From TrEMBL:
Alphabetic keyword roster: DNA-binding, Transcription, Transcription regulation
InterPro entries referenced in this protein's UniProt entry, alphabetically: AraC_XylS_family_regulators, Homeodomain-like_sf, HTH_AraC
SMART domains the record matches: HTH_ARAC (SM00342)
Alphabetized Pfam families for the sequence: HTH_18 (PF12833)
Keyword Transcription regulation: yes
Keyword set includes Transcription regulation: yes
Superkingdom in the source lineage: Bacteria
Location of the HTH araC/xylS-type domain: 178-263
A GO molecular-function annotation: sequence-specific DNA binding
Name of the protein in its database record: AraC family transcriptional regulator
Amino acid sequence: MGSAEFAVAAPHPVLRPLVTRYIGYSQRHNTLSVHRGLPSRHLTLVVGLGQPVRVLAMPKHGEAPGSFAGLVGGMHTAPALIRQDLVQAGMQLELHPLGAYALLGVTAAELSGYVVDLADLGSPGLARLPERLASAPDWPRRFAVLDAVLLDQLDERRAPAPEIGWAWDRLIDAGGTLRVDALAREVGWSRRHFGERFRREVGLTPKQAGRVLRFERAGTVLRTRARVSLAELAAECGYHDQAHLTNEWRALAGCSPGTWIAEELPFLQYDPGERGEESAS
């Protein structure tokens, strides 16, 4: 197995409600040729350092593969397949979907299912981001570049409806297990109105978001717990049974849980719960 370095940083305090964290990575002698970009609660912004990011299969059926100096991936319910080289480095940002419009100038609904070139978002600052990051000499200065660019991009007038922010947080806290009609009642809207507003702001329907959050929770348990049976995992994460978990995993990851554990888990060396200012391993 090859070697990997990860550097993790929290963004500027003003950005933290919209950006969960920055992750820098540098890998050598990488033996995993294709990485699955899995559905999660975040929009993902990725910039390659020295080489493009090559997406072999898009999460939206029928979209052509692409090669990008920098990209943003919308909320999705299928994996993106990403080519990995023997030596590669880059940066990944985890963006809150409700902050997409404020930071990127497009809504999460417009990005949903798509992988978009940063240069196509209409912002000179985002278009120049790959070049600026590649020219920075170390992780701290790259993190500083990200802070500067995103603070310059930020338009705080572009705020989501507070009811949707509250419902999204409730769904996250429950690991995707709340019923849609219950959420709508708590917000005080009809189920239909709530579902449509939620989709426009988050980029997924409430039901799709629940699926993704349960799946993400299961992935976190597998990353952080040494031993857990799939039956236990299914019960803990809100699935009906192990078969339900396996079927959902195949749909959202493109493979069975066992295949993902064997192929990808050994390469995920950074702590997915890490929220420190900066760390490297």
